Amino acid sequence: MLEENYNHLDIEDKIYAFWESNKLFEPKKNNKKKYFSIVIPPPNVTGNLHMGHALNNSIQDLLVRFYRLKGYETLWQPGTDHAGIATELVVEKRLYEKNQSKNILGREKFLKEVWNWKEHSGNLIINQLKKLGSSCDWSQTRFTMDKNMSEAVVKVFLELHKKKLIYKDFKLSNWDPVLQTAISDLEVVQKEVEGKLYYIKYLINKDDFITIATTRPETIFADSAIAVNPKDKKYKKLINKYAKIPIIDKQIKIIADDYADPNQGSGAVKITPAHDFNDYDVGLRHDLEKINILESNGRLNKNCPQKYQGLDRFEARKLIIEDLKSINALEKEEKIKHNVPYGDRSNSIIEPYLTEQWFLNVKKMSVEALKAVKNKKTFFFPESWTKTYNLWLKDIRPWCISRQIWWGHQIPIWYGSDGKIFSAKDQNDAQKQADKFYKKKNSSINQDSNVLDTWFSSALWPFASLGWPKKTYNFKRFYKTSVLVTGFDILFFWVARMMMMGLFVTKKVPFDKVYIHALVRDEHGQKMSKSKGNVIDPLDLIKKYGADALRFTLMSMASPGRDVKLSEERIKGYRNFLTKIWNVSKFCDFNKCNLDIKIDSKEVKLEINQWIINEYINAKKNIDSHIKNFRFDEASKEIYNFVWNIFCDWYLEFSKSIFYSDNQNQIKETKKVFGLIFSNILLTLHPFIPFVTEELWNRLKFLDLYKSPLINCYSDKKFVVIKNSNIELINWLIKLVSLIRSTKVILQVSPGNFVDVCIDHLSKDKKSFLERNFLIFKKASRVENYFKKDEKNDNILPIYLDGDAILIKFATEISLKDQIIKVKEKIDLIKNTIIITKNKLSNKSFINKAPKDVVDKEKDILKKLVNDLNQLESIISIKN
């Protein structure tokens, strides 16, 4: 016997343990069947479950469970990312609390500390994903630093290096002075901030000067030239002359270059090749000197005057401004808003910095990645993301893949004592190469101290996580993967790079389809952030309402191209939906609606049973189509509508009339059909709300009947659409019952009051149908008896449905005349409210200034008012 109330706390952990202990997430090997595979976007090992994870993994789990129930051999490959910089920061913070540091410990001991932290705390995110219901094959869990992944990283690096796609270069990179490492372009966040533009005078001679404008006056010591536009008449006479850098009086040449914009600042630009990406390019064109004036920590170095050496860049800026003022070299300051680059991890201002780094020439690799999408080997959903993907790959720059940290894949490059480079799979291999080259044993070699960007190993994830370079069953069976589910924010970080690496290594695209989902925002559409205090913790919601309620809410709002505005009220609403399903199962259990899995829909005789079978077939067809097209919002609406508005509101109520009758054949058939449809409702709902559906499946003994847990209950049983013209009359009956009910509401007659009806004006088919189904009609609409059309009574009111007249006779104690007067008064009130609402919506100031959700709410109010008015006026027009 089921408990009175549904309580997620009683079932979710128990059900997940049932799945895991029975190894129900592992693929059932069957090469005759189709396969479906997804690789999880590996969360950072430092991570905690957030709403983005909840949406992303709810979608993946829905797809995996959906195809598992279709009989596909299904793998959801899990794992975590070592998250180089993020993890190193976490461990360094722990060491700092113990008055230690990584530099004191040294590399080997520090890495041991990181591995210890990973073993004790690194699986937190995995356990949180389990709380959500994720049905990954946890026995296959991978980590981007595990042995197989590391072998894959080294193998790919060596191959890319061999083909000269990976190379070392001394050039500008994005440098994080706090983390003291290079970062890629994609790890730089441009923020608009308030700042100042400083106009500085560079003397040409004692009577003349040229003014340049800069936001970074501390870099004047690194200037190599001043550029003016060759078409700028104002400066034409100064080209090839020299000007002095203030404070140090160093002479630099005035050059002509199109990079200088006459309409920006003074029109003249200081060229600092070692500290600006655009200036670097200008410097290459004119063979200018590259002068670095910064240490790796952002302090000024020995290439600056002594008084500034050792000062932080921003402290130095203040002092330099004061010194420029004192020598009358600062013409003016101008307040501006401009974009400043920040590191996404440290939130510190990034400096273009001249260092020797390893780069990957992704420009060459992008050709195949572009071609694959153009040739429809991989599809993006929504399709609009294809354009974004193409634009980025066409304008791609070399990827800086080296990082000056310790946690990560150490670059498999060794150097001889003379700088000779040896690329090798390990120390032994490098030693053999060196000994052969130098023609002596135990030649001195040292491995490159840098590690690879975390995204390098992540780019190999779709094939390396499946076992490559070994030819494992999983790699041979499940690669290429079926779909990638990810957020748009890592389209370039990860998706494009996986495409390039997958095609380079395996000659196959890594996935057939890429589904890009939107952001989860708060109920007002604001991005969640700790500073705003609007962060919603999914674990709190799971504890309060259950994982199923959260999952269904997210799926119902997962509309393509539209961010999810999450509110707790929506979750409460779908929690009620789960309670509804629980109550239906109690009804099923109480009435012994035992399932007969051998039941043949063609043998079903009763019209309401034929009708519900057809309704289910139609709903299931739509749901499957929506899921396959990644319209999870539409799929959710379809199943919700079928369960609540069709099955519960109508079929369940109609079934009660049969169960309370004396017709044993009808009772027996209805119980079988009820059990059949409800078991299939659980099957259809399972990918959305797996916990409660599995619990009910077991409790209602469907587990024994199907001889399978719900999670992998594949049945090739096909429902056959029943062709019977009278089935459509069930929908007509529903409309008739609804019309009688709404008429009672309008006339303020209690819904429980019985009425008599006259059906003499109906067609022969409809009359016969109502007579056959009188018990259902009577209970649903509270009809007592039929009466003849020639009866005279002041309390008789005609209502019309699809052109047919049905007469309703109300009890004598109800004054129909008085109720009509009240209806007229209500009509006047609604008309006045409609005028007020229309005026508000025609007010441009309101439309332009009010939040969109407020405007939409007013539109919904107007729509309801108009609908109510039409209903009321229909009653009045009938009576008049």
Brief overview:
The chain has 30 helices and 29 strands.
**How does CATH name the architecture of the domain at 543-723?**
Orthogonal Bundle
CATH superfamily of the domain at 543-723: Isoleucyl-tRNA Synthetase, Domain 1
**What proportion of the residues is helical, as a percent range?**
40-55%
Intertermini distance: 55 Å
Enter the CATH topology name of the domain at 543-723. Answer: Isoleucyl-tRNA Synthetase, Domain 1
The description of the largest β-sheet is: 4 strands, antiparallel
Number of helices: 30
Spatially, the strands of the biggest sheet line up as: 6-5-14-16
Q: Could you list the spans in which at least 5 consecutive residues all have pLDDT below 50? A: none
Mean pLDDT value = 92
Number of DSSP-assigned strands: 29
Rg, Å, rounded: 36 Å
The first-level CATH class of the domain at 543-723 is given as Mainly Alpha
Which structural class do the helices and strands define?
Answer: alpha/beta
Query: What is the global morphology?
Result: elongated
